[in-house]
Amino acid sequence: METIRADVVVLGAGGAGLRAAIALAEADPALRIALISKVYPMRSHTCAAEGGAAGVIKADDSLEHHFNDTVGGGDWLCDQDAVEYLVREAPKELIQLEHWGCPWSRESNGSVAVRPFGGMIKQRTWFAADKSGFHILHTLFQTSLQFASIRRFDEFYATELLADEGRCAGLTAIEMRSGQIHRFDARAVIIAGGGAGRMFPFTTNGAIKTGDGMALAYRAGVPLKDMEFVQYHPTGLPSTGTLLTEACRGEGGVLLNRNGRRFLQDYGMGPETPLGHPVLKTMELGPRDRVSQAFWHEQRKGNAVPTQWGDAMLLDMRHLGEKKINERLPLVRDMSISYMGVDPVTDPVPVRPVVHYMMGGIHTDIRAATSLPGLYAAGECACVSINGANRLGSNSLTELLVFGRRAALSAMEYVQSGARPGAEAALSAAAVAAQARIRDLMQRGGGTETVAGLRKEMMHTMEQHAGIYRTGDGLAEACGKLADLRRRYARIELHDKTNVYNTDLLQALELGSMLDCAEAVTQSALARKESRGAHQRLDFAERDDRNYLRHSLAFYHPTQAPRVDYSDVVITKSQPGVRDYSGGHK
Amino acid sequence: MGERPVELEILRYNPETDREPRFQRYSVGCREEWVVLDALNHIKETVDPTLSYRWSCHMAVCGSCGMMINGEPKLACKSFLRDYVGVIRVEPLAYFPIERDLVTVIDDFMDKLARVKPYLIPKREQPVSDGEYRQTPAELKKFKQYTLCINCMLCYAACPQYGLIPKYIGPAAIALAHRYNQDSRDGGRDQRQEEIAATEGVWDCSFVGACSEVCPEHVDPAGALQQVKIASTVDWYREHLMPWKKK
Ligand SMILES: Cc1cc2nc3c(=O)[nH]c(=O)nc-3n(C[C@H](O)[C@H](O)[C@H](O)COP(=O)(O)OP(=O)(O)OC[C@H]3O[C@@H](n4cnc5c(N)ncnc54)[C@H](O)[C@@H]3O)c2cc1C
Ligand code: FES
After folding, report:
1. What is the value of ipTM here, to two decimals?
2. Distances, alpha carbon A2 to alpha carbons A69, A183, A366, A481, in Å
3. Which of A153, A210, A545, B245 makes the best surface tag, with the fewest CB within 10 Å?
């Protein structure tokens, strides 16, 4: 088995992983950095982010405002020390990106422009038209090319973490081109593996978002935190799940039911605001959880718009005019026409809530460190936690940068503090065992289950029972079903038993990751008997701060359901209050 | 919902088991609104799990799914079944070695991209604490179009020169170099020029313009090439005939 020796392994080359790698290379050019990704860096799903990244920059705004919006938006489940760090570092990180060439949209005087976003009381979302994530990702990737110390391993699929004496000491990965397992030795590992939206059938997430990074840490004993909080974005195209960014509403787009009514006013987000003059933090600029939930109620009332892909609502942008749509939302226009056959300039676009983002993830402290020494995590796969029970749009891209860098600095300190490497014999044995597990999966015969079959059942279960509104009965059923799917997973047989670029194998491994994450979602959701942010229980409709102002922690078990435990939320200055999106601040 | 039978003829090649590439036919029922990528996914899920190809975003932004569809370089996630009649022939991107089935080896492009230094080399260093560099919308517009490249490599598969002269740096890499050269914040043109003005840099382009035609993001690499070539010519004159004008 080929062994690659590095000081720090970064798993994932999306926004978080690239930011971490650059921070490492800048901080200490002598560090050997291995950057591993199952896809070429520029294919990472950060490229799909459209709307922008939040950071206080304009004179009328303050860190205090950003903090309050984020904590309230998260229904007070955020760790407030982490949010303070995020909002403080955000402007620096966004300016740093600007210095690296990111083509942010500009004001006429040459300063960066910002746009309104849901749940934010000031305009603070930096954007590059409606391809913000794409530009962030390419800027980071291209910038990373100047550092010789970043050694890339593109199209390497990580399968297991290696640990010895209670310290993380590297990982194993399959080189897709050859099918060979490689062992990566390192003093520290940073996981930046992205989200897990593919557990659901209808999602804005690309094919690669299968929760591998979360599963790797989880199986190594690190708990997954707040996994029950899954964000639905209100406006996906019903045909494909393709996202139409929140910036559509930030720029003034409105949501209508089948009667042409701006129905959000009926769900505590009114009164109605004048058409074409969006008011911050109310109506269409309410937070995503509330807007998606309002749609669910409209659907029950029979007010949804029927389409051949199911019920929808209408996103009306016609009053913005062709010029503004072309300038600010070119991708939105292009995708609406391509994938729905609707031109937003002339017609309202049917949209419906779509699975978008995992608030939960690998439990880390504010330094991005996990409970396993030597293991760090950042980005969507991590839960630090700044998103609480509901992420505000445009905080995630910022989080990638701020905590990607933070993870790098923590890992570097750890390495420089003289972290010992693992014992060769133990690590080598672990790597050989990891290799054997892959061989076994590939060569196994007589299996009765297929990847596509199990995946379909998992997705169906998640959609049916772990969606916008949940019940105890439904979740219990989902937990049972997922336990069964995990058992049946052991009987999978691959059709493809060859080595080169074997996507049948890859998809089987990805399915394994998703099943583990899905079980953490449903078990944590079943245990949380309250409604908060994106976790809404029909049988426990109220928020219950006395019992559940706590983070859930799911601990992996190889054959049984995870154990769900809790930890305290860090509160520094904002006591839980009422989330008010009624425009009362005006 | 409308469904129709679709026939695809897909190039298959597994280096472990095949001596040479071959075509395999699949007939599947597809929904009318589907793209070619949906059809491939449908085949992989229901007929043949061994079929190999790259994809992720399904929204024409990650650049993974470039392939030849009926002989033309296309993104599979943006090629609608409704636009094709008869059998649809799907092959890996032209001019790149085949790794397996529709998956190509793209090392060459990745190397070339790195060689043109596609990152900002600041004209004037400014600490982050001093805030952003000022850049007017007009200055941004000068290079914005060239930032839109998704590295899908359709332009390489369309470029006859790249087919003939594999060392040619090619459209996307040059367009990205040009993107930084045109950026008001950048001062790295001379460094990039060394690479681009070399023999296999910009001079091999014969201005067929095919690269711009196939670009799914309307980057117009041909336009960039033309501008770079003119600039390189001016450089050459400066250097050789008017040395007193050299910076
Ligand atoms: C359509 C869409 C629009 C969005 N818009 C916005 C927005 O406007 N503003 C905002 O703030 N947020 C937005 N988000 C959210 C945000 O884009 C994501 O949360 C963020 O980009 C995730 O970045 P990441 O670096 O954590 O992961 P990714 O960019 O997903 O990268 C994950 C990396 O991990 C690697 N990886 C994963 N598993 C393995 C493995 N087993 N082996 C090797 N490598 C592996 C992948 O190859 C990849 O490089 C949006 C999300 C979507 C889906
Ligand atoms: S799948 Fe991303 S470009 Fe086609």
Report:
1. 0.95
2. 49, 6, 35, 39
3. B245
